[in-house]
Amino acid sequence: xxxxxxxxxxxxxxxxxxxxxxxxxxxxxxxxxxxxxxxxxxxxxxxxxxxxxxxxxxxxxxxxxxxxxxxxxxxxxxxxxxxxxxx
Amino acid sequence: xxxxxxxxxxxxxxxxxxxxxxxxxxxxxxxxxxxxxxxxxxxxxxxxxxxxxxxxxxxxxxxxxxxxxxxxxxxxxxxxxxxxxxxxxxxxxxxxxxxxxxxxxxxxxxxxxxxxxxxxxxxxxxxxxxxxxxxxxxxxxxxxxxxxxxxxxxxxxxxxxxxxxxxxxxxxxxxxxxxxxxxxxxxxxxxxxxxxxxxxxxxxxxxxxxxxxxxxxxxxxxxxxxxxxxxxxxxxxxxxxxxxxxxxxxxxxxxxxxxxxxxxxxxxxxxxxxxxxxxxxxxxxxxxxxxxxxxxxxxxxxxxxxxxxxxxxxxxxxxxxxxxxxxxxxxxxxxxxxxxxxxxxxxxxxxxxxxxxxxxxxxxxxxxxxxxxxxxxxxxxxxxxxxxxxxxxxxxxxxxxxxxxxxxxxxxxxxxxxxxxxxxxxxxxxxxxxxxxxxxxxxxxxxxxxxxxxxxxxxxxxxxxxxxxxxxxxxxxxxxxxxxxxxxxxxxxxxxxxxxxxxxxxxxxxxxxxxxxxxxxxxxxxxxxxxxxxxxxxxxxxxxxxxxxxxxxxxxxxxxxxxxxxxxxxxxxxxxxxxxxxxxxxxxxxxxxxxxxxxxxxxxxxxxxxxxxxxxxxxxxxxxxxxxxxxxxxxxxxxxxxxxxxxxxxxxxxxxxxxxxxxxxxxxxxxxxxxxxxxxxxxxxxxxxxxxxxxxxxxxxxxxxxxxxxxxxxxxxxxxxxxxxxxxxxxxxx
Lengths: 87, 734
Prior knowledge:
The complex is a heterodimer of chains A (87) and B (734).
Chain A: E1 3-5, E2 11-17, H1 20-31, E3 36-45, H2 47-56, E4 59-61, H3 67-77
Parallel strand pairs in A: 2-3, 3-4
Antiparallel strand pairs in A: 1-2
Helix pairs in contact in A: 1-2
Chain B: H1 3-28, H2 33-52, H3 56-73, H4 81-104, H5 110-127, H6 144-150, E1 161-167, H7 178-183, E2 188-195, E3 212-218, H8 222-229, E4 234-240, H9 255-269, H10 276-293, H11 297-313, H12 317-328, H13 337-345, H14 355-384, H15 389-414, E5 416-418, H16 420-423, H17 426-437, E6 441-446, E7 451-453, H18 454-475, H19 479-484, E8 491-500, E9 503-510, H20 517-526, H21 532-537, H22 540-544, H23 568-577, E10 581-587, E11 591-599, E12 604-612, E13 615-620, E14 624-631, E15 636-638, E16 641-646, E17 649-655, H24 656-659, E18 671-679, E19 682-688, E20 690-698, E21 712-717, E22 723-727, H25 729-733
Helix pairs in contact in B: 1-2, 1-4, 2-3, 2-8, 2-10, 3-4, 3-5, 4-5, 9-10, 9-12, 10-11, 11-12, 14-15, 17-18, 18-23
């Protein structure tokens, strides 16, 4: 399982997160809207997963393992990076 | 012609060839970025060369082509067939100018200006209404999204390409991962993402529907970005931001520029004082030009200034120092130029050697072979004299033989060329013919890497050209006829090459109507190519091969491309001249295949020596089928000739001595020795006095008195110093 709830209540993304993980991530976020997402062990994330993060804008614990994700995607998910009316 | 012009001529020819080849490939895949880059580089280098030798007209014409290619690379225009046609026309013109240069030893001047103008005009026409549908944006008018989403990154100054990718909503199901695709873009500088439609409430978000627009800036060229985005499911827009940097403007001087500059430096420093002024002026001008055309304007100006100083003071130091500075100088390296510089330094290490020098080497190796054979002869002599040296000589001969063999193979390998150099000219030929005859056709080639001796490869072009023309003109039906016969309207012509042992086989196949056997029969009779009797008894394959007979041309209508009177007999003659063969196969309604078989190397031939009328002759082993000894009584007289029955077939037998006009042998021998040879698909027998041995010889073309002697294909020296005449069987038996 690449998406799971940790004991502390944070949602963790681990290893390779595929497009199917997007649905699971969304359910967790809907269940606990204030959760942090810990993606420090994330090696890769499919666009679908990133899209959920973009739409939900949860607090993030990073940087992710994958340097490309850290360099290019993490800035996109930072709170100030874009206006977000949905959250 | 001076060395620069010589070099310019050689290099330009290579570039013209490269560019033509690339353009023809682009005709099928106009957006193939690496190919586009290669063609552009070829044109760019051509232009640079023209600049260095101060050939303004060529510069102007090539520049027009370069413009079109630059736009195609930037994705602003699609390379249309008209534009490709104009580029090819430009190359043709360049080739013509190069021809003039070679003939006259100087650049064409006045007439070239008008010719260049025509080319430029042609490009203007070709450019009318060729806007690309891929992207309709100008450098000047940057789309809003570039400004809005990316200028914030602060890196747009370094970027050459902006790309905006809006994936299809369903793209995740097609295996598309848009963000992964974007972050793996070459030389990515910035990435931005925005929702296509405002994000809905999280509860109604469909995580598997893509609602993103992605934008990126990269330092890679539009072509590379396009290639990277190929196959992406969604809408993709690419925009060129900075004008492409000049290809040669790297941090290091391109090796060729360096070479030219170093040559100038050497020129001014060495020589007689009284020629100093001339040398200064010429070296200064060349150095200035070469720098200017490699994009180093400052240094070019500096060198020009130094030239004036040097000339005024009549000393070479100022100019030399300026050239040294240019050689040492480094200019900042624009990102996009990096790749091309790398490509230039990774060029294969080859040495250009004058073909004549290699020919000399080949000739010397031939002499060495003869010397080796004479050693063999000596050892035989020594043995008959009972000399103890015989054994030692024989061993020595063995070693010699091994070494000479090795040397000969390596020397001949130097003259080996891939058939590509010939085959790659055909897409072009076919394109033009197909347009002119109104018969759409495509070319498939196979085995372009097959190698053969330079002489063979170069000889092949004309015959192949003739056969391809014939295939399209006579073989292939009109599109309407093809549709009526249930064939695809576009005909296919295939050129296939393969090596088999010492022979290289080249097949030219078409999927046209095939050869009309009855028509061949009729025409052969009408034109007296064969008698009625022969025609009746001839099998179908034999009949079809009559098209190679002299005076046979099946075209009822003379067109621009074939049927000019030089028929397929010219093809056969050319191929047989190098010891090759050609034959034809045809299936009515399905197509025709012309099969060429030529020796891998023109130089070495195995011959069987025979004696007739007191003289030794060589018969090429490739035409010998067998040798037989029959009782003289078995020879039956048929008209003027004799014949024997071998394996149930009657074979005509000719007396070699009388055939060659020598004194016929006395006929009292009880046994007749006959060499059975094949020519033009038939067998014949040659009666000889004695059989000799089979030798591998270096065949030399006939020279001097022997030149043009019918029936003799060449000569070679025997071990004992005698000259062996090697017979041309086909010509002799005709």
